[in-house]
Amino acid sequence: MIAVTDVEKSSTWYCVVLGATSGHGGPEYEQLLVDDAMILQLHKLELGHHHGTIGDPGQPLGNGVALWFEVDDLHAAADRATTIDATVQTTIHHNPNADHHELWLRDPDGYLVVLASSSGQDLAVE
Predict the structure, then answer these.
(1) What is the 3-state secondary structure (H, E, C) of 43-105?
(2) Which of 63-79 are b and which e, b meaning 16 or more Cβ less than 10 Å from the residue's Cβ?
(3) For the VOC domain, which residue ranges apply (predicted)?
(4) Domain locations in the chain?
(5) How far from 36 is each of 11, 13, 29, 102, 116, CA to CA, in Å?
(6) Rounded distance between C-alpha atoms, residue 70 and residue 97, angstroms
């Protein structure tokens, strides 16, 4: 679960980039699903509900956090990211430590989002 400033905007962004679907919807809380499995929850930053706020509204969001997702088709995910003008921090490249390819993006709140191919997958870098 991450705290976001605009749940619906972030939901749309993640649904497009990850090929996910909304499992809840609304301006305060969202569950994002891929193949009926919940992969991420979004929570409105300023709302406490029954548990208090998820983050401190006075601090920058995403500092020191990398959200990492393995995707079936990294090039297709990159193409989807371009349709919403996602901010690309690092283009598709090979990570020799993990032996996979990665694309590094920034979501609407500045969270670092890493999309990765399967480990050892031979992927031509375009």
Answers:
(1) EECCCCCCCCCCCCCCCCCCCCCEEEEECCCHHHHHHHHHHCCCEEEEEEEEECCCCEEEEEE
(2) eeeebebebeebbebbe
(3) 1-118
(4) 2-116
(5) 16, 18, 17, 24, 20
(6) 15
What pTM value is reported for the model?
Answer: 0.89
Architecture of domain 2-116: Roll (3.10)
Reference 26, options 12, 46, 40; nearest CA is 12
Residue 103: is it exposed, middle or buried by C-beta count within 10 angstroms (0-12/13-18/19+)? buried
pLDDT in tens, 75-102: 999 999 999 999 999 999 999 999 999 9
